[in-house]
Amino acid sequence: MNAAVRTSYRYTVFETNMGWVGILSSEKGLLRTTLPQYKPEYAAHLLGEKLAHATPSTFLFENTVKQLQSYYAGHSTSFTDNLDLSGATAFQYLVWEITRRIPYGETRSYSWVARQINNPRSMRAVGQALGKNPLPVIIPCHRVISSDGTPGGFSGVPDMKKRLLAMEATPAPPETYLNKMSLRGAQRRSNLSMFKAEIATGTDVPSQ
């Protein structure tokens, strides 16, 4: 692959109050984000095969990182980045766009999403489309639940859907987030240095 293709992707991995999160983007917008992971290399691995052709960038994602850190600290957050959904099917695109409109702290059912796309019998297909969501939280698929009020399916970390819904139901005071992230700053820098070394050697990453 030539240099022009390699440099068309950018990524970063950073710490939040709930764990390490990765972001991957193209020139069009955000391609993929991860749910919080225990280790930075796990988050990087989940960004997928394009990571091998991506260039690390902190400055490019500065605003997105702040928004996601604020979100995972329990604050209502509006995500303003452009999204690159060019890999989506027409059906997935419709489902994801409807799901983006669900407000913070609220939920909708799979059948509600199906009705919004004028295909009321497509609840199962809606669930499958949400399971392919490449941008969790930014496209808040965790806010789509079963009609009986149970969480329903969710890809990723076990119980994460319940944790996110519970967090959104209990707003956090601003100082909690600011103070905690300040105290952990030195440790983040140390972990990031270790992470860069591990990524370079390709060691200690989880399997798909």
Key terms for this structure?
Double Stranded RNA Binding Domain; Arc Repressor Mutant, subunit A; 2 domains; two-stranded parallel sheet; 9 helices; 6 strands; 41% helix; globular; disordered N terminus; disordered C terminus
Q: Can you describe this structure in just a few lines?
A:
This protein is an alpha/beta fold and 208 residues long. It has helices at 3-6, 40-45, 62-72, 90-100, 110-116, 123-131, 160-169, 174-183, 185-201; strands at residues 9-16, 19-25, 30-33, 54-56, 108-109, 144-145.
What report would you give on this structure?
The chain has helices at 3-6, 40-45, 62-72, 90-100, 110-116, 123-131, 160-169, 174-183, 185-201; strands spanning 9-16, 19-25, 30-33, 54-56, 108-109, 144-145. It has a 4-stranded mixed sheet. Mean pLDDT is 84; it is low at 1-7 and 185-208. It has 9 helices and 6 strands. By secondary structure, it is an alpha/beta fold. A hairpin with a 4-residue loop joins strand 2 (19-25) and strand 3. It folds into 2 domains: 3-81 and 173-201, 2-Layer Sandwich (Double Stranded RNA Binding Domain); 90-169, Arc Repressor Mutant, subunit A. Helix content is 41%, strand content 12%. Helix 5 crosses helix 6 (123-131).
